[in-house]
Amino acid sequence: MQTSPAHVPPYFYVTGTDTGVGKSLVSAALLHALRARGVRAVGMKPVASGCERTADGWRNEDALLLQAASDPRPVYGDINPYALRAPVAPELALRDDGVELSLAALVAAYARLAAQAERVVVEGVGGWMAPLSDTLDQLDLVRALRLPVVLVVGLRLGCINHARLTVRALQADGVQLAGWVANEVDPAMARIDDNVAILRDRLPAPCWGRLPHAATPDPALLARHLVLPD
């Protein structure tokens, strides 16, 4: 794994230790934190499964959260080029919808976003090893876009193991880990501070912050808990 930079990279990819660890919430909070620095920052959710039909077409809750946190606010189709109906693994959702994922289409949408802003936060699917389709892994997209990775660690029982395994996978793939964010998904977790201390000691990248658990989380408020490198 490449050495972590001592600054926030202009573009990065957010992955997680598993599904349900708060990647979208952290990504939106990161957008608010970047915007608080006076920079134009937009989000992207290249592939989203689990969408609802609206008057404007299929829409995904997580992608809408990123759109709302973006400034400027890009068109939805660039933020979420593939909006899939079923709330299942993208590979299965693509098959159900009869859609073939195009890496070129994702790269083109990303280029349009990057042309509008100084920072782009790209949110992945599930955990790092979850495939995008039957022919593409998340690694393929990260390589095509040349993005470093920010890891979201969901603080719950087993998070140390999941975080270290994810880091090993990133290392094996030759991906740069820019930083990681701890997200308190289980407020009843025993010895949560001790677990965070172990993670800080064992993960080979700086911690960008720890988001407290909230019944109705507000990304703009949670952004205050992020401490991004200069």
Kindly describe this structure.
With 230 residues, the protein is α/β, with parallel strands linked by helices. 37% of the residues lie in helices and 21% in strands. Strand 9 (177-183), helix 8 (192-202) and strand 10 form a beta-alpha-beta unit. Helix 1 (23-36) runs parallel beside helix 2, helix 5 crosses helix 6 and helix 7 packs parallel to helix 8 (192-202). It is globular and about 45 Å long.
Terminal Cα separation, in Å?
A: 21 Å
CATH class: Alpha Beta
Radius of gyration: 16 Å
Element order: H for helix, E for strand:
EHEEEEHHEHHEHEHEHEH
Low-confidence stretches: none
Look at the helices and sheets and give the structural class. alpha/beta
Number of strands: 10
The CATH architecture designation is 3-Layer(aba) Sandwich
Average predicted confidence as pLDDT: 95
Report helical residue fraction. 25-40%
Could you please say which CATH topology applies here? Answer: Rossmann fold
Strand order of the biggest β-sheet: 2-7-1-8-9-10
From the structure provided, what is the oligomeric state, counting identical versus distinct chains? single chain
Number of domains: 1
- C-alpha geometry: globular
CATH superfamily: P-loop containing nucleotide triphosphate hydrolases
Largest sheet: 6 strands, parallel
Tally the helices.
9
Q: Topology of this structure?
A:
Blueprint: E1 11-16, H1 23-36, E2 41-44, E3 47-49, E4 52-54, E5 57-59, H2 61-69, H3 76-79, E6 82-84, H4 90-97, H5 103-114, E7 119-127, H6 138-145, E8 149-154, H7 159-173, E9 177-183, H8 192-202, E10 207-211, H9 219-222
Parallel strand pairs: 1-7, 1-8, 2-7, 3-6, 8-9, 9-10
Antiparallel strand pairs: 4-5
